[in-house]
Amino acid sequence: MTPQLPASGVSYGQLIDRFPERMRPYLYLARADKPIGTWLLYWPCTWGISMAAFSSGMPIQDMAYMLALFGTGAFVMRGAGCTINDMWDVKFDKMVERTRARPIASGAISRPKAFVFLGGQLAAGLAVLVQLNPYTIAFCLGSMPLVTIYPFMKRITYWPQLVLGLAFNWGALVGWTAVTGGMNWAVALPLYAAGVSWTLVYDTIYGHQDKRDDVAAGVKST
Asked: What is the pTM (predicted TM-score) of this model?
């Protein structure tokens, strides 16, 4: 039996289609139905938090709170990263089979509306950020240039996944500072480097699905 489409005629998948129609394009823009991106952003945070908590003797309940706080932040900021990516890549998304149905590329969300939505996402991220110590807040802000320039990397390099790795694994460093209030580079830097290497592997594999479309669109593909 053929499944029934929503009244709008656009289906975003079983999970998102359960929500009110006006919310669906925004949930799809934030990739709310694809949690793997949130996990990939969150796991490095858990590594840093867990190692720092063990090193400092942090009580288990405080560690659990920190993990929950970073989990919320990972969900919100991963969604914000997707919005930024889709705003910058709208021209190319229209030319790639896998991405042409994305809300901005398809016209379901206009760029001004996406910008307002991004403001809401960043405000939610800020609400999480201010729960952390001042050193960690400053350290978190250091990742924003990486998040902002990542969508442009396919235009200038065959290694955009390196920039993604630098951005996505920043949480390994931030997790440590959030627990200790400082940085132990001898521990945190090798952890960060390992995470970046891990991202190079999985994002290179992921990028293979768009090779033909990337060439046709004139963007670089590993």
From this structure: 0.86
